[in-house]
Every structure is written in structure tokens, then in C-alpha cells.
Amino acid sequence: MIFRALLVWLLIFAVEVVHGVLRTLWLVPLVGDLPARQIGVLVGSLLILLAAWLCIDWIGARGRRELLGVGLSWLLLMLVAEITLGRFVFGYPWLRIAEDFDPTRGGILGLGMLVLFAAPWLARRWRPGPRDEDGAPARATGHRSG
Known about the structure:
Elements: H1 2-31, H2 33-59, H3 63-89, H4 94-99, H5 109-126
């Protein structure tokens, strides 16, 4: 399960990188930097939820604790990636990186990170089929009713 969750995070990361490049090339010139970053968080959140929904059964996490554990892993990996890329690849100052997380300055990346954390649990809840109280697929009882 851990290896599969890591592979799905790598998929999400790759999708987000492409999304960021396209946002910079096409959306920033149209609406400006901050609005493009805000729109990007919303679109990125939808992309994350879609990837989680498509892959959650394959990951194999069951129950709220495992699903939120996967989400926490994804969150921590993405925070490290965001800060590392922002600071050391793109050369952003710490203030610019912090701005993305500061709602008083228009930053809503914290919302996107919250979606990333909850995505495995939400995806499990949204997948079709019977669920237990944790949102995991209900286990077969071995008998049929009706």
C-alpha cells in the first residue's frame, strides 16, 4: 500500500508540474500572477481529487486511519516539494513562498493542501459500492439477503 500511495503521489506531482507550467504560460498573461495562482489552486484541487478517485482502489488503503495516513504522506511530500522547488529551483524568496499560504495576502494554497490531505478519504467515500462507517468498501459477509 505504501509503495502504491507513493506512486500515485508521483503521478499527482507530475500532473501538478504540467498544470503549473500551463498556468504560467497561458493563464498568468491573461489574469495576472496572483489570480492565476488562486485559480490554479482550485483547478489543481480538482485534478488531485480526480487522480485520487481513479487510483484509490489500486492503492489498497482501507478505513479512515489508512486513508488519512495516505493523505498525510501526500501532504508532507507535497510541502517538501513545493518549498524545495519554490526556493531552490525557482529562487523565490521565503516571503513569496509564505504568501501562497497566507489568506490575508490572497494565498489559498493551504486550501489546496487540505484537499490533498483529504483526497484519499474523499475518493474512497465517492467510489461506488457499499461502504462501512469509515468509508471503506463493506466486506462481504458470505451470505445473501433477500
